[in-house]
Amino acid sequence: MHLTRYTDYALRVLIFLAVKGDERATIHEIAESFGVSRNHLMKVVQDLSHRGYITTIRGKHGGLLLSRAPEEISLGGLVRDTEHELGLVECLRDGNDCIITPACRLKPIFNEALEAFLAVLDRYTLADMLGPRQPQLARLMQIAISPA
Amino acid sequence: MHLTRYTDYALRVLIFLAVKGDERATIHEIAESFGVSRNHLMKVVQDLSHRGYITTIRGKHGGLLLSRAPEEISLGGLVRDTEHELGLVECLRDGNDCIITPACRLKPIFNEALEAFLAVLDRYTLADMLGPRQPQLARLMQIAISPA
DNA sequence: CGCTAAGCAGTATTTTATATACATGTTAAA
DNA sequence: TTTAACATGTATATAAAATACTGCTTAGCG
To answer: Which InterPro entries does this one have (chains A, B) (predicted)?
Structure first.
């Protein structure tokens, strides 16, 4: 049971931006910092932008900013938005052709379990991911801490 | 977020055997009934056998039987046994090299969510998957209902 | 005794989802 | 008008999972 890297990267982008505060960050910078594919990250960024999580600024000296306060970004919401396929088993997905589906109780049970999973994430926000360790995170991501 | 078909097939094998009751079922028969790979199913079956879920009988007129009552087979336990990789994101897996892991709170949060997921499954058993619909399941799986 | 139907085990191939790379376009500041 | 950023679409590569193949072992039956 895995989430995709797509979702993982979305989380990392948001963490990076949260730590940066009001300073713009570029995709290139974030990709470098985490050592991941710049191109893949770009798609994640576009998605986050379309969904209203971040603001993108084109052109020279462009970059990215959070559009909402970290306290207002729910992890549950994010996972629902970025993890495109949450159908845990075949019977929960499109094109299901498991023959016993009409009589089998797997579906409601796994749905309940998935809801419990997401409910936990709903209780946390991006702010909870940073906690009191923002300076340490900044160091790890090699962000030059901006003078306030 | 998907479980593997491996886990899915394990569930189906157990359901099949539960409906069959004390009659033996062959791997071939189960694979045919669900229209899935006989070879893959065989590996699932071996695993289930090693873990004590089912008893296998070799030789002519051999086959498979449940080793425990359906009420005693927990779904949570089964998923923990058959879903080999439960590390949802990179930082929960071996070989993690996400640079912010030391300061990031993703790990405990996703662990909590995973525990909530499994806790729901822990509340159900194989018997709950059948419910009162055993005859309907038997029909769907094309099991000739054995006279009691 | 040996044939046959079943499970056992290891390896190899195929498939699929995901991730990555590439090529080109658009925007806006300097 | 150049340059540094994001935008978009397509193609390729990678890795995990599923499936197939080959040969072996066990045990009932005639």
So the answer is: Tscrpt_reg_Rrf2 (IPR000944), WH-like_DNA-bd_sf (IPR036388), WH_DNA-bd_sf (IPR036390)
